[in-house]
Amino acid sequence: IVNLPSVGRNLTDQPTISNEFLVNSDQTFDNLARNATLLNEVDEESNKSEMGLLVDTTGNQISFFRVIKNLTDIYGDPSFGRSSPHLNMVPGVTILEYP
């Protein structure tokens, strides 16, 4: 047993905020969100052949950012060092699930 009193305190690792919207393009996964039959067909194809829309990753880009210095002067810097990022962003196409 290890005594780690900081476990469970402070949310400092990768909270997520998503910005979801529908678009008018055929180059997205929106049709899969709108059509359960199509989603099942694509899912079946992916499971059988390991090919198709669902075998690719969500994003193909990633960005890392630091907030401006005067904010860390005021509120402190929770990162691991002066070159560590505070934020990251992964834009990409994904399948949205609606209740």
List the helices and strands and how they pair.
Elements lengths: L29 H5 L1 H14 L13 E3 L3 H7 L11 E3 L10
Brief digest:
The chain has 99 residues and is mostly helical. The chain has helices at residues 30-34, 36-49, 69-75; strands at residues 63-65, 87-89.
List keywords for this structure.
two-stranded antiparallel sheet; 99 residues; elongated; mainly alpha; 2 strands; 3 helices
What's the order of the H and E elements? HHEHE
Query: Segments where pLDDT lies below 50 for 5+ residues?
Result: none
Q: For the CA atoms, what is the radius of gyration?
A: 20 Å
Number of helices: 3
Structural class comes to mainly alpha
Share in β-strands: 5-15%
Query: Main β-sheet: number of strands, strand sense, barrel status?
Result: 2 strands, antiparallel
DSSP E strands, number = 2
- Shape assignment: elongated
The side-by-side strand order for the widest beta sheet comes to: 1-2
Chain oligomer state: single chain
Quote the average pLDDT. 78
Helix content: 25-40%
What is the end-to-end distance?
42 Å
Note down, in words, how this protein is organized:
The chain has three helices and two strands, in the order ααβαβ. The mean pLDDT is 78. The protein has a domain at 30-89. The protein is mostly helical and 99 residues long. The longest helix is centred in the middle third of the chain and has 14 residues, at 36-49.
